[in-house]
Write a structure and sequence with these properties.
The protein has 293 residues and is mostly beta strands. Helices cover 4% and strands 45% of the residues. The chain contains two helices and 24 strands. The strands form four sheets. A nine-stranded antiparallel sheet has the order 7-8-9-10-24-20-19-14-17, with no helix packed on it. Strands 6, 12, 13, 15, 16, 18, 21 and 22 form an eight-stranded antiparallel sheet that branches. A five-stranded antiparallel sheet has the order 1-2-3-4-5, with no helix packed on it. Its EC number is 5.1.3.15.
Length: 293
């Protein structure tokens, strides 16, 4: 995504400006270490490009920036649930308007904090009071942290994911390691399967890896780099690529879009909302992902 060509709405500091893509405002970070973009629609990271590198984050050329649809690509925030265990799929955070709360910068990078608070619309979907914060740290690496706090007078339960789309040169030549050997295969009616140490895709994949290692690595032989993903607060890592048949069924992805992306997601996976993580009043929980090349 070409952040530098987008029209500027306002200048907040030497490193941070608000720009606009169609109907969506984006917090643009330009720093010696890296450039990045975070859409206020969805609290959605749309770009992270370290100095001298191609973007580590994949965005669809056909993503719809109408301020209503979820953005295709980037790092969607799936919360207060992940998957289709309730409606809408992946929760409401990725289609809600987040607020820019704070931005700080120094020689090491820029930190941007966004917030999402309950509205009548969210209450109709999920009748709980919450405070959700997204901390995006842009420097030599990208760190994204979702912190949710129960500000209600009763407990509530959630699941979620930071649904990262990684940019790769050619999915057929990308080798993934560190995801662990055991996974739940969504394409085989959630059957528990055993896999190898190294994954090279030849077809669609939709797997919940239940025992990921501390670091997952994607060796990209075309772009001559290794992407490292380090997650915390998760109970699994979801790997997904829709392949040609899936891409052809999406209006917001080019038919060949699947060739240059792989999702490696920091995930709190649960078969139902009730089986997710329970927070008591005033309790908080953090889910994060750190991405570097």
């Amino acid at each position: 995504m070409d952040l530098l060509s987008l029209p500027t709405v306002s200048v907040l500091s030497d490193n941070v400006t608000i720009v606009e893509q169609d109907q969506v405002k984006i917090v643009r970070v330009i720093h010696d270490k890296a450039t990045a973009g975070i859409a206020l629609h969805g609290g959605h990271v749309v770009s992270y490009q370290p100095a001298g590198q191609q973007d580590l984050i994949w965005m669809s050329d056909k993503a719809i920036f109408d301020g209503k649809a979820a953005l295709r690509g980037g790092i969607p925030v799936c919360w207060p649930w992940f998957g289709r265990i309730a409606a809408p799929a992946h929760g409401f955070a990725r289609t809600s308007e987040w607020e820019l709360v704070e931005h700080r910068e120094n020689d090491n990078g820029v930190i941007v904090e966004l917030a999402l608070f309950p509205t009548e619309e969210t209450h109709d979907i999920w009748p709980n009071m919450f405070d959700a914060r997204l901390l995006v740290e842009v420097g030599d690496e990208l760190k994204v942290t979702l912190k949710v706090t129960n500000i209600d007078d009763h407990e509530w339960t959630f699941s979620g994911a930071l649904h990262t789309y990684l940019n790769v040169g050619d999915i057929l030549q990308a080798e993934t390691t560190g995801m662990g050997g055991e996974y739940i295969d969504s394409l085989l009616e959630n059957q528990v399967c055993q896999g190898g140490d190294t994954l090279v895709l030849t077809d669609t994949i939709d797997r919940v890896y239940t025992k990921p290692e501390a670091q997952i690595k994607v060796e990209d032989k075309v772009l001559n780099r290794t992407l490292t993903i380090e997650n915390s607060g998760h109970n699994s890592a979801v790997l997904w690529n829709p392949w040609s048949q899936g891409a052809q069924g999406m209006t917001d992805m080019a038919d060949d879009g699947y060739k240059t992306m792989l999702c490696v997601e920091s995930t709190v996976h649960a078969p139902s909302i009730q089986q997710g993580i329970t927070l008591q009043p005033d309790q908080s929980y953090e889910l994060s992902t750190v991405i570097s090349a």
